[in-house]
Amino acid sequence: MTNRRHIYTAASLFLLVAGMVGLAFASVPLYRLFCQVTGFGGTPRVATGGLSTGTDSSDRQITVRFDSNVNSALPWRFKPVLRQTSVRIGEEKLALFTAENIGEKAATGTASFNVTPYKAARYFAKVQCFCFEEQRLEAGQKVDMPVSFFVDPEILDDPNARDVSTITLSYTFFPAEPEGDANSW
Amino acid sequence: MSAAHHPTGWRRWVYSTNHKDIGTMYIVLSMIGAIIGGGMSWYIRLELAQPGIQFIDDTQLYNVMVTAHGFLMVFFVVMPAMIGGFGNWFVPLMIGAPDMSFPRMNNISFWLLAAALVLLVLAGVTGGGPGTGWTVYPPLSSATYHPGPAVDLAILSLHVAGASSILGAINLITTIVNMRAPGMTMHRAPLFVWAILVTAFLLLLAIPVLAGALTMLLTDRNFGTTFFVPEGGGDPILWQHLFWFFGHPEVYIIIIPAFGIISQIIATFSKKPVFGYLGMAYAMCAIGFVGFVVWAHHMYTVGLDVNTRAYFVLATMVIAVPTGIKIFSWLATMWGGSIELKTPMLFATGFIALFVAGGVTGVVLSNAGMDVALHDTYYVVAHFHYVLSIAAVFAMYAGFYYWIGKMSGRQYSETLGKIHFWASFVGVNLLFFPQHFLGAAGMPRRIPDYPDAYAGWNMVSSVGALITAIGTFFFLYIVWHTLTRGRAAEANPWGVGATTLEWTVPSPAPFHTHEDLPKIEAAQGVE
Question: Shortest Cα distance from B518 to chain A (angstroms)?
């Protein structure tokens, strides 16, 4: 009788433990979702399908600067064609980056991205981006990589973000498969 | 179970299902861990006594010692002594239960921890050892910077220690929830029982998150996953979030049992019930709860935005409120009491002084702006050693002197105990107080060398470490002296102030106690 009570208590506690383990792993997708929805930590939005670009564009101009980095494990040169550009709020704009494989082998890279200031990230929407998929460059190959984006006019209604006059879009290219062998020992 | 059932020889210990024997083994394990972990810290202080490199040429070895010192002290000294040791011994005695609810699981908990200690020692002597710090941040802990098996062994050790803690916590909660003697309502349970209950819940909620994070790190290192690797879409900051979601509650796991021990001792030696019993109990619950929503105050420098930092500053400062309730209630318990400054009481009052000193610097550090300057300096080292190491260790000493008569049947020598207290109190303050100055002057932690400007206070700190070491070895002598020369302890050596149930059984506590359940008519010294 009492024994059954002990088992019942212990079983509920084990469930609690299992739940916490689950939460630890669920934190990865949950946090990603949270960032995508809120723009937390500088995660830019992805505009899916005909979002209201240009419909209520404003006359205000915003400067968008481009920052490019390459992880040392990837022998690529990666630069924006223009260092910065000026865009009307609400207007869709295309920017180009140039990537060149200066290594001796073909390599696949993937770009992580970020927007600063963080508070502007939720209003910075990408329509198309080379960073949405992995990019493969043959040895010596040089390509232009496009990103099209717009700044959501709602930024003007946000008292915290409406003072933003410059947004920096940053990319870092990493090798798509980690180079070093994790089992090297 | 008959009273005659009393195994002897090695079977008594290896196969033990007796909460007192298992508690004793936990305390012995903790002492072994303390000697190894303490030895490492003294070696570190020896190196740091003067600028330049004197003894530790191999800086990886220095890092390994800093790491192992942290792991040992947290997982193999404080937790086993307070939760496994005193928890096992006195929770059943205090609530009037004959033993723990799952005696065999209790045995497994202990032996898993012993295995984990072996794994940790193996990690330390394999392939250069884990020089990651106890926080194991990637990318330093990744396969790139720690390619050998040492970090994998350390991860495995923590997994096993975590499993041990989870099983122990489930056992303690089930015991406290289901096995209280008739009349022992939760609101009559001694505060030490409350403390262990809150701690066990913290363990259940925090350890699985550490286990999950460690598993991610293990697969990142060995199987090519990229949880913490940016090129694969991961983020090393995720480790810090997961680690500190465990790590912050962990510091309360260490200190809340100490709160429980101190409450019993202050009440006993003031010969008064604890002031504000319910407030004390629910303050611990509040500390445990808020402890889960403040973790990012360890990460103010990772680039959190200003609103997030503002929240974590506020939430962190809120913890000072229930903590203040506890401090003031202890003082109010002593106020107007008939205070007897026996050794346990000396250590308990010493605990309050040290904990307040560490708590005050904690409030300083909780400010995100201030913390940017003090992050990873000796100021932080001084802060967490005041609260976690020396306050917690003072609580362990206090518990030892308070209960050794009950556990061994022999009473310690009051004179020797008082010498030990004063040596420790002077030693630890000389050791850690100057580290505030070093940290405020910008001395970074975890580096075996420093500019000459920091030489003076480092020497003072190392002299403090020497005094503390002498005090610690003196304590080992006291243990030997007590067990061989101590006079026989009576059932209740402390008089009218000691009202909890463990003082109603003879000393040493018989192998089986409370086989006829005690009936509690009124509260046992807590109301």
Answer: 17
So what's the ipTM on this one? 0.85
* Phi then psi dihedrals of residue B225, to 5 deg: -75, 165
pTM: 0.89
Strand-pair partners of A78: A99
Chain centroid to Cα B299, Å, comes to: 22
SS3 content of chain A, % helix, strand, coil (to 5): 30, 40, 35
Q: What is the percent of chain B where pLDDT is above 70?
A: 98
B297 token code pair? 């105050």
Residue B298 annotated as catalytic: yes
Tokens of B484: 């061989």
Give the per-residue SS3 of B121-142.
Answer: HHHHCCCCCCCCCCCCCCCCCC
Chain B residues whose beta carbon lies within 8 Å of the beta carbon of residue A27: 238, 241-242
pLDDT digits (tens, 9 = 90+) for B100-116: 999 999 999 999 999 99
**Phi, then psi, of A107 in degrees rounded to 5:** -145, 150
Instruction: Give residues 131 to 160 of A whose Cβ lies within 8 Å of B.
Output: none
Nearest chain B residue to A23 by CA: give it. B209
Asked if pLDDT for residue B501 goes beyond 60, the answer is: yes
What is the distance in angstroms between the Cα of B206 and the nearest Cα belonging to chain A? Answer: 8
Would the CB atoms of A185 and B174 count as touching at under 8 Å?
no
Lowest mean pLDDT among A118-122, A174-178, B136-140, B484-488: A174-178
Q: What is the mean pLDDT of the segment spanning A140-168?
A: 89
Q: Determine, for residues A24 and B242 on separate chains, whether the beta-carbon distance falls below 8 Å.
A: yes
What is the distance between the alpha carbons of residues B138 and B220, in angstroms, rounded to a whole number? 10
Nearest to B295 by CA among B355, B376, B209: B209
Task: Give pLDDT, residue B40.
Answer: 95
**What is the residue-averaged pLDDT of chain B?**
94
B250 has catalytic annotation: yes
Q: Are B213 and B246 in contact (CB under 8 A)?
A: yes
